[in-house]
Write a structure and sequence with these properties.
Number of helices: 5
Radius of gyration: 17 Å
Distance between the termini: 21 Å
Largest sheet: 2 strands, antiparallel
Oligomer: single chain
Order of helices and strands: HHHHHEE
Length: about 110
Amino acid sequence: MCGKRLAYIIRRNIDELMRYDSFGIDESIKARLLSVSSATIDRKMAFERAKLTNAARYSGKKSGFLKYRIPVRLSFSFEERQPGFFEFDTVFHDGGTVHGEFCRTLTMTDVCLG
């Protein structure tokens, strides 16, 4: 995820994230997260992104046909969390190479029910 999208999602969801102790977000961390720029996020994530090769990040055939025909929402309000709204994700468990045998999974998650 790019810094712009991540900054937006953090700002929209910070109060929800604070409700979970496992994140360890207190008021001082909240203030820092709300003030961080997207450029800073990108700089901080550069090292982790560098570990991923293009083969590990993007597998399969690119299809320009589908790219412009499938609507993608970057976020939604918490009021929109109703049963029946799904998020989909595909994962190639290939370890960074498409050679040999590996598993592909499709995950469907109901936003309301988890």
